[in-house]
């Protein structure tokens, strides 16, 4: 079988070692003679799995003890509404930094659930000569002006990443769906971090929430019980039946990540992968990228062919070469190579070599 490298933005590649392990124990997990999908989430075996997953994730991300960890339903968008319903009450205000498609969508959902007066939006991307740059404003004011500031440090669609820490007097909520565990971060700087699982954690259907204890004292709106953080904490993420198979695979991804040296070791590989691709794009007059160097995403590398009439040909030939799902998001066009934690360096080497060949082939 020839190697296929999958550059999909999500659901995305899962480490091959994890898939092989899952395959080998699909019908008989833990000697139970049944699949992990078919056992009770309250069985002692499954609880042991979830306990270990929590220990591993805490270790991988150095999560302080005053933070709760939740494994929830509803993906990334589920959290767009959960943060509003859990923290805003009927009067609270929130500030949303807009740096691309996903932060914009989060703000729109927040307005839908509250009102325009409660949600303030601040665009932080400047476009000069077709290059997008994040310009972080001075963020100061009364501590109680906003219940939280929401932002998205990695915009999956636009290929924009924010590497600087945000300095502000309000709790920070970060949508890390597409860059969680891609590099080390200081969790203690955040009121809450959330991420849909289908990029760096495992399969879709699961989302992870890391929430500081004091955030749970903010007034909540009436809401669905399964998205209520307080109930989730009280019931160990098992107020209702959780997505158990996704949780199991996530636990295996954590084990894999630990086995290869943890987040810090992988962060270096991620930088190497991204540098290889961006350097090639910059050195070429056939391809180009539209993000300022300081904000180029390490996880989602967007690029355009100078001659866009060749897009379909590029994608077809790439797929033939085993390089799949390179089409950019429909809202921005062009190409996008999502190179999450599970993408090996060889995948990017292969891509660069294909792009070089495609650019120099006669047509
Ligand atoms: N936030 C970000 C940064 C994302 O990339 C995505 C999905 N690509 C979402 C939120 C939405 O996630 P979901 O489809 O799981 O709701």
UniProtKB/TrEMBL annotation:
InterPro entries: Aminotrans_V_dom, Aminotrans_V_PyrdxlP_BS, Pser_aminoTfrase, PyrdxlP-dep_Trfase, PyrdxlP-dep_Trfase_major, PyrdxlP-dep_Trfase_small. Its main location: cytoplasm. Pyridoxal 5'-phosphate binds at residues 76-77, 102, 156, 175, 198, 240-241. GO terms for cellular component: cytoplasm. It catalyses: O-phospho-L-serine + 2-oxoglutarate = 3-phosphooxypyruvate + L-glutamate; 4-(phosphooxy)-L-threonine + 2-oxoglutarate = (R)-3-hydroxy-2-oxo-4-phosphooxybutanoate + L-glutamate. Residues 5-349 form the Aminotransferase class V domain. It comes from Shewanella hanedai. This is Phosphoserine aminotransferase. It is found in: Cytoplasm. It comes from the Bacteria.
